[in-house]
Design a protein that fits this description.
The structure holds two protein chains of two kinds.
Chain A lengths: L1 E14 L3 E14 L3 E5 L6 H8 L7 E6 L2 E2 L4 H7 E4 L11 H11 L4 H14 L15 H13 L5 E5 L7 H16 L3 E6 L2 H7 L2 E6 L2 E6 L1 H8 L4 H14 L20 H5 L2
Parallel strand pairs in A: 3-8, 3-9, 6-7, 7-8
Antiparallel strand pairs in A: 1-2, 1-4, 4-5, 9-10
Helix pairs in contact in A: 3-4, 3-5
Chain B lengths: L2 H16 L2 H30 L3 E6 L20 E6 L3 H17 L15 H11 L3 E4 L14 E4 L4 H27 L21 H39 L1 H6 L5 H41 L2 H7 L4 H26 L5 H20 L10 H4 L4 H11 L3 H31 L1 H4 L8 H8 L9 H21 L7 H27 L3 H4 L7 H28 L4 H15 L3 H28 L5 H14 L4 H21 L3 H23 L11 E4 L2 E4 L1 H20 L14 H5 L7
Parallel strand pairs in B: 1-2, 1-3
Antiparallel strand pairs in B: 3-4, 5-6
The chains are: A alpha/beta, B mainly alpha.
């Protein structure tokens, strides 16, 4: 089932110096339930803009975005109940404890007390957050903050989770823990949109990827498909080649919709090549 | 709107702020510490003042009349320390100057017992320092024989505060001695001492002590409360907007189920809560401290001060609490909207400083001596509310009740606009996710031409409006006074209308947009629409004149302005009417409409900001009329014209409205000054009253009904929604002189 459908998405920003700046130019992709969809690109490619539109924080200039079959422009309230958003900025309130913060968002999602608190207990146990549940945000380490952020995103059990460079600044141990959490969520049948520019993570996690450069989608597919198409097994090298082609305007023009609808849990390029 | 979200956000924000030590210190702890500390300092300063004394040196004390000595240690003020000095060689040269001054000014001071003179500054200052005195009095030889022929000379240095005090005390001392001396002299005559005090006065103050006590507080407390209400809104607003942006938490909140409007309400209530709390804490702390300090003062014998500055009556506190709630709401919404522009707390402080600068005059205005609640002051935001609370504290309930609806309406309207602005800011992506701006002038210029759109941006429109206002200010200053002839009237009208008002908008429309026609909102004239607009101007004119007369009564014109108007009247009355209509009705209507309801309106109404376009263009239009009375009337009229501009979609109908309005005003004023009576066929509508043409009550009533019908017609008519509007030219001042009988 297509949990995320992005079709011909454009986003323009007014710019005092450049006039109008095209942050996204006709981007289309589809992400399914039970898969990790990697949104890749260098800094400033438009990943965060795309994810903010998916999270209803920004409005698309044109095109259509549907999350869990709800339109982000017309049914933003329903979309918000269907997503969990974790950004690279851990976004933790300094003067709230982990428990208070998750409880606050749980109540914003109108979860009844008899459902909220058992779920909080479960999430805190699963993410190993019980030790610092009463610790204020200001005193947490980056890893702790990111766990709280994930707990906040999971509290209402959304079918779609959006991770925007969530591993940025995390040490190896915490980054591994994050990857483990993501894989568990995928196994639970959630659709995960995972933005990163760490290729090792992509190889380890993503079932399907879309590469964005300068606001344009330059290629999409499973890792195997990309490897076959570009005859390059090293994904980091492949990524670099694609960006170079992108600079020259040689984009892969294959229509993205319908591309790479890989079979759920099928072996991936990453799984095959990961150490 | 989901109020449970608002409640949740409100609770979280309040809890968060209460946990912030810096905010708590500024908002809660500081008020509790500040006033006791200030009271302590006051007590010490008061004590210090009580022990202050001044040294007054006296040369030639032996020359003073021995039967009535000047120095009486037993009855002299305790602050004076007398120092009897002798003339020695060191100061002989300086004293020689006294002789010289005495000779020059003898006639002028002949009948005065005291007088200070400026002699050689350096020498005099040197003398004062030499003798270690704050003032010196020199009694010339022979003074005891004839005091009127030998004026005293007092030397002081008014740059020294102690010297000023010495002079004041010495003057009081000499005045007392003088009266005593006169009484002694009169006692030897048959006239008696009644000549000295011919008028016996017994002054009675009928105001109750508690009202008298409240008098000073009514001026101080609203000021203090509003400043703290603003300060109390200031810091939470920065933290809740810019702070959240900086920490990244705002983004997570924006993708939560809470809508933008709910987030704004939650934050607004939090800011308001702290604003009100800060103001009330200050009030309570001030009240408590004052009560204690005044008790101490009364024990020290300062009964006068206690009578005028005693503890604040409790009922006054109640009125002040009522005052602070709506004002805090307004300040909070404004602070929230402004703070949402900032990306960081540091930037937030930069943005909120102008808000403080704008708010201060409104808070200070009621402190001007003589400022009272009136129809004029009640419509000024903040000021009206402060004056209302003052009237309530003073017990003037009738006056307060009379202006209560106006003050409430104005305050609520301001609250509504502020809240709306704050919500708009939160809904704006460019505000919420503004990247750091790079100020590259070269790049801006490069893209200047190719990025143009059909209409100006709102920023360009506002810049144009401000440019026009500033140009008008300097342009009017450069024109020396009122025109003296019709030729100079024509020149000044063309200079202002074409050179200052129209030219900037035309240039900007040409350079900044791709379509001058769309930028100025020029469209093909629709005869029916223009006819309706002109008819509406005719029907609204009686109401407008009544309003202008009311404004004129409330804000009286100064003598200088009145005389200039009379001079202008005489020039206009001696000019052919077609020239007057062309220069003072048609040209201003065209120029002002193209600019205010054209260029400015086009930019401001982008993205659906119709209400903003109407209100802001009305404000610019009003302010472009340099006199306060005109500003008020033109602003109100500007709202009406702006609405027509919105409904009709262009400037043609507003030009028709504006030109008709100006023409009627000019014709009525011109006929009045020429002594022309209204024709018989118009006698049912216009009559000759008190030397002027005025509308009859029949036409006034009828015109209101027709105007309402026309407005309803415009409201239901499906024109393209983009329009022009009108302006009222120099003739506005003249319009106010046309009295209206209704």
């Amino acid at each position: 089932m297509d949990f995320v459908q992005v079709q011909n998405l454009c986003k323009n920003y007014p710019d005092t110096a450049l006039g109008e700046f095209k942050a996204l130019d006709n981007v289309s992709f589809v992400a399914k339930a039970g898969e990790v969809f990697g949104l890749l690109g260098p800094n400033g490619a438009g990943k965060t803009t795309a994810l903010r539109i998916l999270a209803t924080i920004l409005r698309p200039s044109s095109g259509s975005v549907r999350i869990y079959n709800f339109d982000v422009s017309e049914q933003a309230d329903l979309v918000r109940h269907s997503i969990g958003f974790v950004s690279n900025n851990t976004a933790i309130y300094d003067r709230m404890s982990a428990w208070e913060l998750v409880e606050y968002f749980g109540r914003l999602y109108a979860l009844p007390a008899d459902r909220l608190y058992p779920r909080m207990e479960k999430i805190f146990r699963t993410l190993q957050m019980e030790e610092f549940r009463d610790c204020p945000g200001a005193k947490m380490s980056t890893g702790m903050k990111q766990k709280v952020s994930i707990a906040r995103a999971l509290i209402h059990d959304p079918p779609v989770l959006i991770f925007d460079e969530a591993s940025l600044g995390l040490d190896v141990v915490v980054a591994r823990a994050l990857q483990s959490i993501v894989m568990d969520l995928r196994d639970q049948g959630k659709c995960i949109i995972y933005s990163t520019h760490i290729m090792r993570e992509v190889e380890r996690l993503c079932d399907h990827v879309a590469i964005i450069y300068k606001g344009k989608l330059i290629d999409t597919g499973t890792l195997e498909e990309l490897a076959d198409r570009h005859e390059q097994n090293d994904f980091e090298e492949l990524f670099f080649q694609l960006l170079t082609k992108g600079d020259k305007g040689h984009f892969h023009t294959k229509p993205p919709i319908g591309l790479g609808m890989r079979t759920l849990n099928a072996p991936t390029f990453a799984q095959g090549s990961a150490p | 709107m989901n109020w449970s979200h608002v409640k949740l956000i409100f609770h979280r924000e309040v809890r968060d702020q209460l946990r912030d030590r810096r905010t708590m210190f500024t908002i809660c702890i500081l008020p509790l510490l500040l006033y006791p500390l200030m009271g302590m300092v006051m007590m010490q300063v008061a004590q210090f003042h009580r022990e202050q004394h001044v040294s007054i040196g006296i040369f030639g004390n032996e020359n003073w009349p021995s039967d009535s000595p000047l120095i009486l240690e037993s009855s002299d003020p305790s602050q004076i320390r007398w120092k009897t000095l002798t003339v020695d060689d060191a100061i002989g040269a300086t004293l020689a100057q006294f002789h010289s001054v005495q000779a020059q000014t003898n006639s002028a001071v002949k009948n005065k017992s005291t007088q200070s003179y400026v002699v050689d500054g350096k020498a005099a200052e040197k003398l004062l320092r030499q003798v270690h005195c704050d003032a010196v009095i020199w009694v010339p030889p022979g003074y005891h024989n004839s005091i009127s022929d030998n004026p005293l000379v007092i030397l002081s240095n008014q740059r020294w505060e102690r010297s000023q005090l010495a002079i004041r005390l010495l003057a009081e001392k000499l005045e007392g001695w003088h009266l005593s001396w006169i009484r002694t002299q009169l006692a030897w005559t048959e006239l008696g001492t009644a000549l000295v005090d011919p008028l016996a006065i017994r002054q009675l103050d009928v105001s109750p002590p508690e009202v008298k006590r409240a008098l000073v507080w009514t001026k101080i407390l609203p000021f203090v409360m509003l400043i703290w209400a603003l300060t109390g809104a200031f810091y939470p607003a920065i933290d809740l907007c810019a702070g959240e942006k900086e920490r990244g938490t705002l983004e997570t909140l924006l993708c939560s189920p809470a809508r933008r409007k709910e987030i704004v309400w939650g934050k607004l209530l939090t800011i308001m809560c702290f604003s009100v709390g800060t103001a009330l804490l200050n009030l309570a702390s001030m009240h408590t401290t004052t009560s204690i300090v005044m008790t101490q003062f009364s024990q020290l014998g300062a009964t006068d001060m206690v009578a005028s500055l005693g503890p604040l009556p409790l009922h006054s506190m109640g009125w002040l609490i009522l005052l602070v709630i709506p004002i805090s709401a307004m300040f909070s919404a404004l602070a929230l909207a402004v703070a949402s522009l900032a990306r960081s707390t540091k930037e937030g402080q930069y943005y909120l400083m102008p808000l403080l600068l704008v708010g201060m005059p409104l808070v200070m205005l009621p402190m001007i001596p003589g400022a009272t609640l009136s129809p004029g002051t009640s419509v000024i935001p903040v000021t009206g509310a402060v004056l209302l609370s003052r009237a309530l504290i003073d017990g003037e309930y009738g006056l307060a009740l009379l202006h209560l609806p106006t003050v409430i309406a104005v305050t609520l309207f301001c609250c509504f606009l502020s809240k709306r602005w704050a919500i708009r800011q939160f809904e704006s992506e460019s505000v919420m996710f503004r990247d750091s701006e790079r100020s590259s002038v070269a790049q801006w210029i490069r893209n200047f031409w190719r990025q143009r759109e059909d209409t100006p941006t709102s920023n360009e429109s506002i810049f144009c409006g401000l440019l026009i206002l500033v140009s008008l200010f300097y342009g009017r200053l450069s024109m020396s006074g009122m025109p003296l002839s019709w030729t100079s009237v024509v020149q000044s009208t063309l200079f202002i209308q074409v050179g200052i008002i129209l030219a900037p908008a035309l240039i900007m429309a040409t350079m900044l947009t791709r379509s001058v026609r769309k930028a100025l909102r020029l469209h093909r004239p629709r005869p029916l629409e223009m006819l309706a607009a002109a008819s509406l101007a005719v029907c609204l004119h009686p109401t407008y004149l009544a309003f202008a007369a009311a404004v004129g009564n409330e804000y009286k014109l100064g003598e200088q302005t009145t005389s200039m108007l009379m001079q202008f009247d005489s020039i206009v009355s001696s000019t052919p009417i077609w020239q007057v209509l062309l220069m003072l009705a048609l040209i201003p209507a065209i120029c002002e409409e193209l600019v205010f309801r054209g260029f400015l309106f086009a930019g401001l109404q982008r993205n659906g900001g119709h209400l903003r376009a109407i209100l802001v263009t009305a404000a610019f239009f009003g302010l472009s009329h340099g006199v306060l009375q005109q500003t008020i009337t033109a602003s109100v009229m500007g709202v009406m014209i702006g609405w027509i501009a919105y409904r009709s979609g262009g400037v043609a109908s507003t030009i028709a409205f504006h030109a008709t309005h100006n023409s009627i005003s000019m014709i009525l004023a011109s006929c009045s000054s020429r002594g022309i009576h209204s024709p018989h066929w118009l006698s049912w509508a216009i009559e000759h009253s008190d030397g002027h043409l005025a509308y009859t009550s029949t036409w006034f009533t009828l015109s209101v009904g027709i105007a309402i019908t026309l407005i309803a017609w415009f409201a239901t008519r499906g024109f393209a929604l983009s329009k022009p509007r009108t302006s009222i030219g120099m003739n506005n001042l003249r319009e106010q002189r046309v009295t209206l009988s209704s």
